[in-house]
UniProtKB/TrEMBL annotation:
Keywords: Carboxypeptidase, Cell shape, Cell wall biogenesis/degradation, Hydrolase, Peptidoglycan synthesis, Protease, Signal. Gene3D superfamilies: DD-peptidase/beta-lactamase superfamily. GO terms for molecular function: serine-type D-Ala-D-Ala carboxypeptidase activity. Belongs to the peptidase S11 family. Residues 35-261 form the Peptidase S11 D-alanyl-D-alanine carboxypeptidase A N-terminal domain. This is D-alanyl-D-alanine carboxypeptidase. GO terms for biological process: cell wall organization; peptidoglycan biosynthetic process; proteolysis; regulation of cell shape. It comes from Paenibacillus lutimineralis. It holds the Pfam family Peptidase_S11.
Amino acid sequence: MRMTSKIRFISLLTSCLLLLYPLAVQAEKQDKPNSRQVPGNHAQAAALIDVTSGRVLYEHHGDDKLPIASLTKIMTAIVAIEHGRLSDKVKVGRAAYGKEGSSIYLHLGEEMTLENMLFGLMLRSGNDAATAIAEHVGGSEEGFVRLMNEKASLLGLNHSQFQNPHGLDAKNHYSSAIDLAKLTSYAMHNPDFKEIVKTQIKQAPNPNDPWDYKWINKNKMLRFYEGADGVKTGYTKIARRCLVSSATRNGQQLVVVTINDGDDWNDHRKLLDYGFDHFPLVEIIKRGQTLHSGIVAGTGFKYALTTEESREIGKKLVLQEENELSFGRRGELHILLDQQPIGKIPVYNRGSIPPIPKQSQQVYGSGSMRPDWFTSFQQALRSLLFLGD
């Protein structure tokens, strides 16, 4: 009888422990310091990207094709910088002078350097500046729009199409949160673009009045978020409030995009905090690091990773036979996250690493991004880095 009672007691105790075990495991997971919860936001579509690695850290309806208002001007600016000369004088024509919407109040026939006009475009969102720039750089607004769409294709922005350089609502003029994040990440590698979008106040000569133009950046993130360094606001009645912002902390730059977000300033702050807190930029490989006997890394490799993910990084060295045309290059090192490829770097014989090109920037693929985007991004960045004046 006593034995039976003991068996019943042990069985009951075991059952209770088994019932409690999942709760204990769940509590343990919740208590981990690296556990993360994506902050809520009010956007119709949103994306968060690490600029160095190109990794999309968060997206909500990221591929939805939506009107984007003046976020269009990010593409306008980078195309103008790449195809124009900043010292060129841009003349204001009738189409630019009469353009509706936000304006920097240019006069008909006025001339301004392309550089100053780009400040007016990005700080004050001047539609007159956008039109004047397009006509000057592209020969016509239509010609410039072709350049915009060619750049979108080159960058692999498969959910974007442009009909104008200013972003006023138009049929078949759209982009997506992820596409805009990719575009901005690309543009942020250009020092001229980067300098313009981080500027809070710009003065420029005004030939029509005794005082200079003075443009105060509409992007409030520059004033209330630590490390903020860009990039563009936007609004139309159809697109509603749109915002792309960037910030740099501890050598890591993040970009956030929201489309149709009534509380965008706060949502961007939360998403940037989330990215910096949970996805620090980790240096996985250093340039010149020894990988194998006599084999060294040709470039470094950095990637945005959680603490848990950093333990799942793998490396695969793929060597090739040396020949006269290889110039010391011996193959590639493939970097894996949880056995999935996230990028690759060239490897060389020790002493054969080529010099780093001026303005060289790291560009790598991401496991969360499509391979065609990575390839297109590399090609476009090469054209940017080696483009003559």
